[in-house]
Specification:
With 83 residues, the chain is an alpha/beta fold. The chain is 30% helix and 12% strand. The chain contains three helices and four strands; from the N terminus they run H-E-H-E-E-H-E. The strands form two sheets. A two-stranded parallel ribbon has the order 1-2. It has a two-stranded parallel sheet with strand order 3-4. Helix 2 links the parallel strand 1 and strand 2. The longest helix is centred in the middle third of the chain and has 11 residues.
């Protein structure tokens, strides 16, 4: 199961490494709860953005600027995926 957030099911893994990459199907609520849970390690939680927009709520290409803008406003770490 994809967790789409930092939560009780994956927090032990997060605490044992230097970061966690969450997949592309997160929501704003899951981002905010993940950042809250990470506390001082908020920048070690990475919220993926798929430039091709597969299975997400934004469009491909320039549409990816919507989640990038949101994530930038809350100073979240943003890995971009574009194979």
């Amino acid at each position: 199961n994809y967790q789409n957030s930092l939560n009780g099911q994956n927090e032990a893994f997060f605490n044992s490494c230097d970061g966690i990459f969450l997949n592309y199907w997160w929501t704003e609520d899951k981002i905010l709860s993940s950042i809250d849970r990470a506390k001082s390690r908020r920048n070690d939680v990475f919220f993926g953005v798929d430039i091709f927009a597969r299975g997400v709520r934004y469009g491909p290409g320039k549409g990816a600027s919507i989640p990038v803008s949101f994530l930038s406003q809350i100073a979240a770490s943003i890995p971009l995926f574009a194979p």
